[in-house]
Amino acid sequence: MPLKITITDKDSGIFIVAPEGQINNSTYIIMEDHIKPLLDSKLNSQMEIMAFDLRSVNYIASLGFGLLLKLKRILNEKNISIMFFNIQPQVKAIFKSIEFIPNHIFKDFNELYEFIKKQRNNIQNENKNIKKE
Fold it and tell me: Which of 7, 38, 93, 130 is exposed most, by the fewest CB atoms within 10 A?
């Protein structure tokens, strides 16, 4: 089954990448081809978070994880957070077995969005406190 990728600008600065199928050694390039233009575009300056919805991914091969590590490095350089949600148990087991434990893994989009809202509120409060001083 070919890998299908949907990318959605969910909210200001939050881009959701939703692959469907296996990210294996022959399909990982499809995901890279879909994400690369996003990183090179003007949208990149608006992006705060790239979140991967992995509900429809039941397997990630080594080259797929290599791509995720590469993306993590590139996004970190651009001060863009990488997050994951809806991870299938078998994929989560692979994450653990190769010690690829991202900082931000969420049960679903609602949990991810609540986390983001709290982070944004904290930043706004810090900015207000700085202005008062």
Answer: 130
pLDDT tens by residue, 84-110: 999 999 998 888 887 776 668 899 999
Please choose, from the candidates 100, 45, 103, 102, the residue with its C-alpha nearest in 3D space to the C-alpha of residue 78. 45
- 85-113 in b/e burial notation, b at 16+ Cβ within 10 A? bbbeeebeebbeeeeeeeeebbeebeebb
Q: Tokens for 19? A: 């692959």
The total number of structural domains in the chain stands at 1
31-47 average pLDDT score:
81
Residue 70: what pLDDT? 92
Tokens of 99: 């010690």
Give the CATH number, domain containing residue 21: 3.30.750.24
pTM of the predicted protein model: 0.86
